[in-house]
Specification:
The structure is a single chain. With 411 residues, the chain is an alpha/beta fold. Strand 17 and strand 18 form a beta hairpin. The two termini are 35 Å apart. It is globular and about 55 Å long. The strands form three sheets. Strands 1-3-2-4-7-5-6-8-14-13-10 form an eleven-stranded mixed sheet, with helices on both faces. A four-stranded antiparallel sheet has the order 15-16-18-17, covered by helices on one side. It is 31% helix and 24% strand. The protein has three domains: 229 residues, 3-Layer(aba) Sandwich (Aminopeptidase), CATH 3.40.630.10; 68 residues; 52 residues, no CATH class. Bound molecules: zinc ion. Zinc ion binds next to loops.
Length: 411
């Protein structure tokens, strides 16, 4: 008889507000298989993902489905969810890099009063560290978000082949490169350890369709990850159809070309009427700030226009990518041709392992490096810096020992 696993992996917050409990719940049927970890509310003003996780866990339980492996639902920013704010002191979906995590864990616990997100991150790490340590196969991480502006759902991922399997199982546009322009996203960190990480933007925060879109994404992910067979989810076609209808006519794959960074002192205000995937021209005034109108540096489609007071992302621009390009890059990486990129003219090795430097101004350099599984880091002294994503052929990595030690000490 399938049953829900006994207890949440970490104890609920003593404040006893059910919205403040880290674990939303988990489900397993006592059968071996993949682990799927689903996050809702990494941004506290995005409760639709949490509601969707709870609804799917309840449905799994009610239907008694013989799931392989385990599904675990976690709240991201618990205190933010209670207060209904994106975050209190800092964005919880940033600074997930080993050095920043070590520095955060080493700080005095008193710092949590001035930065409540330190506590959120520490608790998330404490919940995940034992799972990461004992993983023998990639864990699938699904991170559910919603948006302040209107627009169709989409997914984001770092472009490694293991992520494509999940992302392309969802009939929504796949947006590449967001983790390149956002420093230290949580899923980028897990993906770099060799796990699978896909984020889904389900729709506008308060739109009732957003929760339904997230539920559809969860069911499709459970099937794609191998936890459930298609025929075990009676309404799978409905879920698929819902997402397909919400994204009809949109490109299958896009890549982020530009991020407009906002500082608090900018008084950034998006002009009304922009939605995800809306075409914009180069030089279009899409927002206003202290300096006057904010113009787009190039044409493309609008992504995540900021119609809320918080966050440092004003808007993003994306453009469609040909699926042929993705097929070619998959072939090159499977053939391990990615190592040849080092031999291209004008390419030099950087100081860090797997880091390559390319003279700036080389047309299409970024495209070529993406093709080979590298990510663009930044420009440094007139050169573009690229780093290699963890290849699909590389073994899983655990959290650095220093992080485990700090968690054991202060966790
Ligand atoms: Zn979000």
């Amino acid at each position: 008889m399938p049953q829900r696993s006994s207890s949440p992996i970490i104890s609920p917050d003593p404040a006893a507000d059910p919205r403040a409990a880290r674990s939303i719940g988990s489900y397993d049927a006592g059968r071996p298989g993949p682990l799927v970890v689903i996050f809702g509310g990494i941004h506290g003003n995005e409760p639709a993902g949490v509601a969707a996780i709870a609804a799917v866990l309840a449905a799994l339980q009610e239907r008694g489905l013989p799931l392989r492996g385990r599904v675990l639902g976690l709240r991201g920013n618990c205190a933010g969810l209670v207060k209904g704010v994106r975050y209190q002191a800092r964005d919880l979906n940033r600074s997930w890099q080993a050095p920043a995590i070590v520095a955060m864990l080493a700080r005095d616990r008193a710092s949590e009063r001035s930065c409540p997100e330190d506590r959120e991150e520490r608790e998330l790490l404490s919940a995940l560290a034992p799972l990461l340590a004992k993983a023998r196969a990639p864990i699938t991480f699904l991170d559910l978000h919603s948006m302040s502006g209107d627009g169709a759902p989409f997914s984001c991922m770092a472009d490694v082949l293991r992520n494509r399997k999940i992302a392309f199982a969802l009939p929504v546009p796949v947006v590449l490169g967001l983790e390149e322009v956002i420093d230290g996203s949580m899923l980028g960190f897990f993906s770099d350890l060799g796990h699978v990480g896909v984020a889904v933007e389900g729709g506008q925060h308060d739109d009732p369709r957003t929760q339904a879109n997230h539920e559809a994404a969860i069911w499709l992910t459970l099937v794609a990850a191998g936890c459930l067979r298609r025929e075990q989810v009676g309404d799978l076609a409905l879920h698929h159809g819902r997402l397909a209808a919400a994204t009809a006519g949109l490109p299958r794959v896009l890549e982020i070309r530009h991020r407009h960074v906002v500082k608090e002192s900018d008084d950034f205000v998006m002009r009304p009427g922009y939605a995800n995937f809306q075409p914009v021209r180069a030089g279009e005034a899409v927002a206003d700030d202290q300096g006057g109108p904010v113009m787009t540096p190039e044409g493309g489609v609008m992504m995540l226009p900021r119609y809320q007071g918080q966050g440092e992302d004003g808007y993003f621009l994306a453009r469609a990518v040909s699926p042929v390009w993705l097929a070619i890059s998959a072939g090159l990486r499977r053939a391990r041709a990615d190592r040849l990129v080092r031999l291209l003219p004008g390419v030099a090795r950087g100081a860090a392992d797997g880091e390559l430097l390319v003279a700036a101004g080389r047309p299409r350099a970024i495209d070529v490096f993406h093709l080979f599984g590298y990510r663009h880091e930044r420009a440094r002294e007139g050169r573009l810096v690229f780093s290699r994503r963890r290849p699909d052929s590389a073994p899983l990595a655990d959290l650095p020992a220093e992080i485990h030690a700090l968690l054991a000490e202060h966790g």
